[in-house]
Specification:
Layout (H helix, E strand, L loop, with lengths): L1 E4 L1 H9 L4 H10 L4 E4 L1 H11 L2 H7 L3 H14 L1 E2 L16 H9 L4 E3 L3 H6 L1 E2 L2 E4 L1 H22 L3
Parallel strand pairs: 1-2, 1-4, 2-3, 4-6
Antiparallel strand pairs: 5-6
Protein backbone atom coordinates (compact mmCIF):
# COMPACT_ATOMS: atom_id res chain seq x y z
CA UNK A 1 0.00 0.00 0.00
CA UNK A 2 1.28 3.47 -0.89
CA UNK A 3 0.33 6.69 0.86
CA UNK A 4 0.98 10.41 0.45
CA UNK A 5 0.83 12.38 3.70
CA UNK A 6 -0.21 16.02 3.72
CA UNK A 7 2.02 18.50 5.52
CA UNK A 8 -0.61 19.25 8.17
CA UNK A 9 -0.46 15.60 9.26
CA UNK A 10 3.34 15.66 9.33
CA UNK A 11 3.33 18.77 11.51
CA UNK A 12 0.72 17.29 13.84
CA UNK A 13 2.88 14.17 14.22
CA UNK A 14 5.72 16.16 15.70
CA UNK A 15 3.60 18.52 17.79
CA UNK A 16 1.50 15.72 19.34
CA UNK A 17 3.57 12.53 19.02
CA UNK A 18 0.86 10.16 20.24
CA UNK A 19 -2.55 9.09 19.03
CA UNK A 20 -4.00 8.42 15.63
CA UNK A 21 -1.54 10.50 13.64
CA UNK A 22 1.35 8.71 15.33
CA UNK A 23 -0.27 5.43 14.23
CA UNK A 24 -0.17 6.61 10.60
CA UNK A 25 3.57 7.13 10.93
CA UNK A 26 4.10 3.84 12.76
CA UNK A 27 2.51 2.05 9.80
CA UNK A 28 5.07 3.67 7.49
CA UNK A 29 8.03 3.31 9.85
CA UNK A 30 7.08 -0.33 10.48
CA UNK A 31 7.13 -1.11 6.77
CA UNK A 32 3.38 -1.69 6.49
CA UNK A 33 2.97 0.97 3.81
CA UNK A 34 5.19 3.10 1.61
CA UNK A 35 5.29 6.87 1.99
CA UNK A 36 5.39 8.56 -1.42
CA UNK A 37 6.86 12.05 -1.69
CA UNK A 38 7.85 14.50 -4.38
CA UNK A 39 10.61 17.11 -4.16
CA UNK A 40 7.96 19.80 -3.74
CA UNK A 41 6.37 17.96 -0.80
CA UNK A 42 9.69 17.31 0.96
CA UNK A 43 10.56 21.00 0.56
CA UNK A 44 7.22 21.97 2.08
CA UNK A 45 7.69 19.54 4.99
CA UNK A 46 11.07 21.13 5.74
CA UNK A 47 9.87 24.71 5.26
CA UNK A 48 6.91 24.25 7.59
CA UNK A 49 8.76 22.18 10.20
CA UNK A 50 11.44 24.90 10.45
CA UNK A 51 8.99 27.78 10.92
CA UNK A 52 9.63 29.41 14.32
CA UNK A 53 6.03 28.92 15.49
CA UNK A 54 6.17 25.19 14.72
CA UNK A 55 9.65 24.81 16.24
CA UNK A 56 8.30 26.33 19.45
CA UNK A 57 5.55 23.70 19.58
CA UNK A 58 7.37 20.57 18.40
CA UNK A 59 10.31 21.00 20.78
CA UNK A 60 12.67 19.16 18.43
CA UNK A 61 16.35 19.97 18.50
CA UNK A 62 18.12 20.82 15.26
CA UNK A 63 19.64 17.32 15.28
CA UNK A 64 16.23 15.68 15.76
CA UNK A 65 14.78 17.73 12.93
CA UNK A 66 17.70 16.69 10.71
CA UNK A 67 16.96 13.02 11.50
CA UNK A 68 13.28 13.51 10.63
CA UNK A 69 14.14 15.14 7.31
CA UNK A 70 16.73 12.45 6.60
CA UNK A 71 14.01 9.84 7.10
CA UNK A 72 11.83 11.49 4.51
CA UNK A 73 14.81 11.65 2.17
CA UNK A 74 16.02 8.08 2.61
CA UNK A 75 12.99 5.98 3.56
CA UNK A 76 10.26 7.38 1.34
CA UNK A 77 9.50 6.51 -2.27
CA UNK A 78 10.42 9.55 -4.37
CA UNK A 79 8.53 10.52 -7.50
CA UNK A 80 8.66 13.49 -9.86
CA UNK A 81 5.12 14.28 -11.00
CA UNK A 82 4.95 15.40 -14.60
CA UNK A 83 1.25 16.18 -14.82
CA UNK A 84 -0.04 19.34 -13.18
CA UNK A 85 -3.58 19.01 -11.87
CA UNK A 86 -6.12 21.65 -10.94
CA UNK A 87 -8.41 19.82 -8.55
CA UNK A 88 -8.55 21.96 -5.41
CA UNK A 89 -9.58 25.46 -6.50
CA UNK A 90 -9.98 26.65 -2.89
CA UNK A 91 -6.29 25.91 -2.26
CA UNK A 92 -4.29 25.12 -5.41
CA UNK A 93 -1.20 24.37 -3.30
CA UNK A 94 -2.95 21.15 -2.25
CA UNK A 95 -2.86 19.84 -5.83
CA UNK A 96 0.76 18.72 -5.32
CA UNK A 97 -0.39 15.93 -2.97
CA UNK A 98 -2.72 14.45 -5.57
CA UNK A 99 -0.11 14.92 -8.31
CA UNK A 100 2.36 12.98 -6.17
CA UNK A 101 -0.21 10.27 -5.44
CA UNK A 102 -0.94 9.84 -9.15
CA UNK A 103 2.75 9.74 -10.10
CA UNK A 104 3.55 7.33 -7.27
CA UNK A 105 0.52 5.11 -7.82
CA UNK A 106 -0.57 5.74 -4.24
CA UNK A 107 -3.70 4.27 -2.76
CA UNK A 108 -4.35 7.09 -0.29
CA UNK A 109 -3.68 10.71 0.48
CA UNK A 110 -3.89 11.24 4.24
CA UNK A 111 -4.86 14.79 5.13
CA UNK A 112 -6.62 16.93 7.69
CA UNK A 113 -7.20 19.71 5.15
CA UNK A 114 -10.90 20.31 4.49
CA UNK A 115 -10.32 21.43 0.90
CA UNK A 116 -8.33 18.34 0.02
CA UNK A 117 -10.70 16.04 1.92
CA UNK A 118 -13.63 17.52 -0.02
CA UNK A 119 -12.11 15.98 -3.15
CA UNK A 120 -12.89 12.54 -1.71
CA UNK A 121 -11.04 10.60 -4.37
CA UNK A 122 -9.32 10.98 -7.69
CA UNK A 123 -8.57 8.20 -10.15
CA UNK A 124 -9.12 5.60 -7.44
CA UNK A 125 -6.91 7.38 -4.90
CA UNK A 126 -8.86 8.00 -1.71
CA UNK A 127 -8.31 11.22 0.24
CA UNK A 128 -8.95 10.42 3.89
CA UNK A 129 -8.29 11.85 7.34
CA UNK A 130 -5.76 10.03 9.55
CA UNK A 131 -8.37 8.21 11.66
CA UNK A 132 -10.04 6.76 8.58
CA UNK A 133 -6.68 5.66 7.15
CA UNK A 134 -5.80 3.85 10.38
CA UNK A 135 -9.22 2.13 10.44
CA UNK A 136 -8.95 1.14 6.77
CA UNK A 137 -5.49 -0.27 7.34
CA UNK A 138 -6.63 -2.24 10.39
CA UNK A 139 -9.57 -3.64 8.42
CA UNK A 140 -7.34 -4.58 5.47
CA UNK A 141 -4.82 -6.21 7.81
CA UNK A 142 -7.60 -8.18 9.50
CA UNK A 143 -8.95 -9.37 6.13
CA UNK A 144 -5.47 -10.47 5.02
CA UNK A 145 -4.99 -12.39 8.28
CA UNK A 146 -8.32 -14.15 7.77
CA UNK A 147 -7.35 -15.04 4.19
CA UNK A 148 -3.99 -16.39 5.34
CA UNK A 149 -5.67 -18.49 8.02
CA UNK A 150 -8.25 -19.89 5.59
CA UNK A 151 -5.54 -20.75 3.05
CA UNK A 152 -3.44 -22.64 5.61
CA UNK A 153 -3.72 -26.42 5.40
CA UNK A 154 -5.10 -27.97 8.55
Amino acid sequence: MRVVIDTNVVVSRYIAPRGTIAQVFRLWEGGHCDLVVSPEIVQEYERVLTEPAIRAMDRMSDDELAVVMSGFASLAVHVAPEDRLHLVPQDPTDDKFVECAVAGKADYVVSGDKHLLALGSYEGIQVVPPAVFVRLFAKKDEEETEQDESASPE
